Amino acid sequence: MPFLLIFQQPDLGTAVTLLPVCFGILILAGLPLRYIAALAVVAVLSAPVVWTYGLEDYQRQRISSFLDPSQDARGAGYQQIQAQITVGSGGTLGKGFLQGTQSQYNFLPVAHNDFIFSAYAEEQGFLGVVVALGLYLFVILRGLDVARLAKDRLGTYVVVGIMSGFSFQVIYNIAMSAGFAPVKGLTLPLMSYGGSSIIATLAAFGLILNVRMRRFTN
């Protein structure tokens, strides 16, 4: 229900972030994988209908520009092209803090928010990217460890749901920055500028810490 309501706003990007939360909990609760496979088949078969009647013009344009950003290099494909250039220009060691030409000279739009990872990759290079990915992996693994230690299934479901949404945002934002996913306004948790994003992320981590704190209570 929240997915449908948010989708009707329309805000497809935020709505999609709810799907990993839903499926993560359903799989943990014991939903047979054959049902997930059946839903995937239905989604593929209904894709032409959704493309024609369910998406706005700008959403279809984003998908088209993702498949071939050069078809509108100065319009819909501009962000994706600049993001890839920014990531690649960092090289192995990067250009240094606040020394990235693509991000500092505003060739890359919203470098402080949606494309913060591209700006980070330009400044810190491949090694910095490896460190950042390692830190994100550490957070995810610690979250899953809390889910394992939870005293009841409700706590486990809460933690798995939160970490599923968190992991999806991290993976999608990084994939978007590298040109492997359509451009969408999804923040990179704990890195992107924005008050609501950081408040929501820290509130979610507060719930996870609460589950861990209460693992020994009766």
From TrEMBL:
Q: At the top level of its lineage, which domain of life is listed?
A: Eukaryota
Q: Where in the cell is it found?
A: Membrane
One Pfam family recorded for the sequence: FTSW_RODA_SPOVE
Read off the InterPro entries from this record.
FtsW/RodA
Q: Does the keyword Thylakoid apply?
A: no
A Gene Ontology annotation in the biological process aspect, one of them, is: regulation of cell shape
Q: What name appears for this protein in its UniProt entry?
A: Peptidoglycan glycosyltransferase MrdB
Recorded source organism is Geodia barretti
